[in-house]
UniProtKB/TrEMBL annotation:
GO BP term, example: defense response
Protein name (Swiss-Prot/TrEMBL): C2 domain-containing protein
Biased composition (Acidic residues): 174-187
Domain of life assignment: Eukaryota
Region (Disordered): 172-191
Transmembrane segments: none
The organism of origin for this protein: Quercus rubra
PROSITE patterns: C2
Cross-referenced SMART domains: C2 (SM00239)
Alphabetical list of SUPFAM superfamilies matching this protein: C2 domain (Calcium/lipid-binding domain, CaLB)
InterPro entries attached to this UniProt entry: C2_dom (IPR000008), C2_domain_sf (IPR035892), C2_SRC2/BAP (IPR044750)
Amino acid sequence: MSLMDYNTDLKRRNPPHLRLREIELLIISAQDLKNVKHVTKMRAYAVVYFQKGVHVAKTHVDEHGCTNPAWNEVVKVRFKEDLPESDVMAALNVDIYARGHVREKTVGSARVLLCDVLKGGDASEPLDNPIQCITVQVWRPSGRPHGLLNLWVPPTGRFLIRRDSLSFSVKETVEDEEKEEEEEEEVEKNKVVGYVPVELEN
């Protein structure tokens, strides 16, 4: 089989409309949502998707925030690679629900155009890629605005530097790299002199 035939066969087995792209989003919080629970406390969670039939991601349920839930959760969302960013119908959707014993109640929905989510960015220069903080309107099923949603989107679609906290600085990164270099130099020095560290028994 020639290279051209192989590529043609590969495209046939993995057509563009079946290949998926994945990006990461930090769903931070919502505020001033409609309280859809009148007897029990509202426990909200978010469902995130570009194409509901392709992939859906969910946050955990906030047990305490009620109408001002805080999730601070990174979710990964997949969508078809050939989804055009310029299409006005191509959007990130965040549906917010209230957990119930019998059924889930819809609190509201927010929508961000795909072209506004993906801002480009250079993966080789992560420190030059500020995380994009977005605040969008939450809409009730009736079409009325009620509440706001806060989320962060990395310009490249990935949180390129991972931390326990997403609040990092250039100084922290430089200090980490210097520490790693010192440790590597110590290991190389021990190899040269033939030193093998052992634990002494008491």
